[in-house]
Specification:
By secondary structure, the protein is an alpha+beta fold. It is built from 17 helices and eleven strands. Among the domains are: 58 residues, Orthogonal Bundle (434 Repressor (Amino-terminal Domain)); 77 residues, no CATH class; 118 residues, Orthogonal Bundle (Arc Repressor Mutant, subunit A), CATH 1.10.10. The strands form three sheets. It has a six-stranded mixed β-sheet. A three-stranded mixed β-sheet has the order 1-3-2, covered by helices on one side. A two-stranded antiparallel ribbon has the order 4-5. A hairpin with a 2-residue loop joins strand 4 and strand 5. The radius of gyration is 24 Å and the shape is globular.
Length: 485
């Protein structure tokens, strides 16, 4: 949803009724808290009347939190996850009709979220069991897998950021205020951050003599109050690491509050979340929200121009573009993904409704894979998901080097950035391309495990729960045929 778009009507009836009932209020009590008439509240709850921007702000004040909790995008993402889960024929012989799913998400989102969470844990347990069978065939495979397949720490942290639309208002505004206070300028950030660490935190920054084989980028010695950084880092990279440490030291209460609200249960997940939150702060220091959004709009989201203006890398710009979801000042709702050459997704987040694969590899027809064949070049693609939703995306490779010379370790990734096709005209990359209903689109999917496409020649394995149809008298480019195809 683009809540800032003129003329767009927002209906929040079921969500509002649910929040009211959770607090044990009747409509009269809610009306009194909002300063509205009882009939007005009744019309909102029955979706007979859309909410205005003013009422939306009142709702956020009364119920606490951001107005994003009333966003239709939250429901769209949940609907996509639920649809993917119910496409698994091992759990349901036939998926419910789309209208039924939409009503479930609208009227009982907690139930839908619980089902999706159970399905994801079921998938992890099934994957773990399959790995054990592969490793210990026969009697040797009688070992007991975990009884409770809890999310892995990195998965849980990713889901946390996605639930927040990749935007954390308190941290973002705090970072923006620091950048403004220090008058940070591209290519001249490190000196100011080095000084503020010393003056406010008593932490001196010094060169890290030996980053080691792992390519250490930051080492904080709490006892000596020393922050060590390798000398090969650029000004922006040094500033990022210093801003990360600054957040860990001065915004510990904010980070702890976010972690507490997320409900993370184990130390590993909390530690990973704390680092992710500090990195979010650091990125917002380097690319302050208002300045960066204005530059992004002015350049029509030209990533390379933004690189040059802010003296940061391609990935940094793309990542920040996917976080521009501040209430009243939203950018294009992008998805952002980082993929390695084996197809593993190491970063993924979406401010829109693009549905990523949670299990198995990403769709091989997605342009992030083709990017490795044309390193350094920006590729464009119109892609269509099985449900008919269309997206416009770009992809390009990046390389990271841990300092040193010829023998230094290097990391290669492809970065994908995209948005709903309806917003593609706002991007410079879509100029001159056919974007209408007749536009040719790559027919991609969320991953072979849940993709229902019957005639895909790139399919790696049949959808979960659909048995293979064996026919030795027929052979084609489609490797797997399954019941119903």
């Amino acid at each position: 949803m683009k809540s800032d778009a003129p003329g767009r009507k927002l209906f929040v009836g079921p969500r509002l009724r649910r929040l009211r009932e959770q607090r044990g209020w009747n409509q009269s009590q809610l009306a009194a808290r909002l300063g509205l008439s009882l009939s007005y509240v009744s019309q909102i709850e029955t979706n007979q009347r859309p909410v205005t921007a003013g009422v939306l702000l009142k709702l956020a004040e009364v119920f606490g939190g951001d107005v994003a909790q009333f966003s239709e995008d939250q429901d769209k993402r949940l609907l996509a996850d639920l649809d993917a889960a119910l496409s698994d024929r091992t759990l349901a012989p036939e998926p419910p009709a789309a209208a039924q799913l939409a009503r479930l998400v609208e009227q009982a989102p907690e139930l839908a979220e619980a089902y999706v969470a159970l399905y994801q844990r079921h998938q992890r347990l099934r994957d773990e069991h399959a790995q054990l069978i592969d490793r210990f065939y026969g009697e040797e495979g009688a070992g007991q897998p975990r009884a409770w397949a809890a999310p892995l720490p990195h998965e849980e942290v990713r889901d946390f950021f996605n639930r927040r639309n990749n935007y954390l208002d308190t941290l973002d505004r705090r970072a923006e205020a620091l950048a403004r206070e220090l008058a940070l300028r591209p290519a001249q950030r490190a000196a100011a951050l080095r000084e503020v660490l010393l003056q406010r935190c008593g932490v001196a920054v010094e060169a890290l003599a030996d980053p080691g084989d792992g390519g250490l980028l930051r080492h904080y010695d709490a006892r000596r109050r020393r922050l060590q950084l390798p000398p090969h880092l650029s000004d922006a990279q040094q500033a990022f690491q210093m801003a990360t440490q600054y957040a860990l030291l001065t915004a510990a209460d904010v980070l702890a509050g976010e972690i507490r609200e997320a409900g993370f249960a184990d130390d590993a997940t909390c530690a990973l979340a704390r680092q992710g939150l500090a990195h979010y702060f650091a990125g917002a220091v380097l690319l302050p929200y208002a300045d960066f959004l204005a530059a992004a709009r002015e350049s029509r989201y030209d990533v390379e121009l933004l690189q040059q203006r802010f003296h940061v890398g391609f990935e940094t710009v793309c990542h920040r573009l996917s976080t521009l979801q501040r209430q009243g000042a939203r950018g294009v709702p992008f998805y952002f993904v980082r993929v390695d050459q084996a197809g593993n997704i190491s970063k993924r987040q979406s401010a829109g409704t693009f549905h990523f694969a949670r299990h198995g590899g990403a769709c091989p027809l997605w342009n992030v894979h083709e990017a490795f064949a044309q390193p350094g070049r920006i590729l464009t693609q119109v892609a269509e998901m099985p449900d008919g939703s269309r997206f416009f995306g770009i992809a390009r490779t990046i390389e990271r080097q841990g300092g040193g010379g010829f023998r230094a370790q290097r990391k290669h990734f492809a970065i994908g950035l995209g948005c709903d096709l309806a917003q593609a005209h706002e991007l410079v990359y879509a100029d001159g391309l056919a974007l209408g209903g007749a536009a040719q689109a790559a027919l991609i999917g969320p991953g072979c495990r849940v993709c229902p496409r019957e005639h895909c020649v790139q399919r790696a394995f049949p959808p979960a729960g659909k048995p293979l149809v064996a026919d030795s008298d027929r052979e084609s480019l489609v490797s797997y045929r399954f019941s119903g195809a």
